[in-house]
Amino acid sequence: MKAKRLPERAMTELVEKGKLKRADILVTRSKGSLLGWLIRFGTKSYWNHAAMVYVIRNPELGYDSTFIIESGGAGIDIHNIGHYFGHPKKYDVGIKRLEKEWFHNDREDGGLRFRRRVRGFALEEIDDKYNHRLIVGIARKILRQVILAAIFPWLRRKETSQRRARMPGIARRLNVNAYICSGFVQWAYYRGVGKVQEETGDTDDQKRQEVIFNPEIGQDDSEEVLLSTSPADLANSDKLTWKYIVKNGVVWEISRQEDVDSVLKQD
Fold it and tell me: Does the predicted TM-score (pTM) go above 0.70?
């Protein structure tokens, strides 16, 4: 399907018309942000932040809007999605979705359970260790990533395996792909799906493989590796399907990467 421009603003098209789902992934571009620019420069990506849909608008249950959960330097926050949709001069937003049948279906013992567990895990499993020790450590690594991207810009043009093999000694001792926001999303997906499998006795390892969006993750699924996922990893993952782009306040329904690229090039 080619990109389709929708007539209404994002809050109407996506929130009021109920087009979003729990655990949808948001990637965002912060306009006028120096840190955002540095992250985009360091990862050669249009995007610099990520979040996840937490609660869907449901007036009958008292939810008049959709809320997202995201991680930042201050810890874990839940915000009205209007924080992004309502400020087109400050943010562009992309929405991606895991559309594997086992995750996407609306059965109580199927997709609904997985999606609820992923977004619930993001909140329930947060403790002081994550909020403080990991956040501080990863924040330091973000600064190192930015510095290395500025000092060694040629690294951005290398494939991951080549880049790591040829890094100077000081660079090899640093994790140059450490992020807070997008790593939090990857961590919640991987751990949340794994938790459901443990609870149900599901031994299908393919499900966990299908929620690995960071190409760096192999046999090592430690917190540090999961949390090293970048916004670019989420945006580039072909395991996630593009659904919508909100650019300069205009909403596009979209599915193909070439159309995403075309929309993002527009002024």
Answer: yes
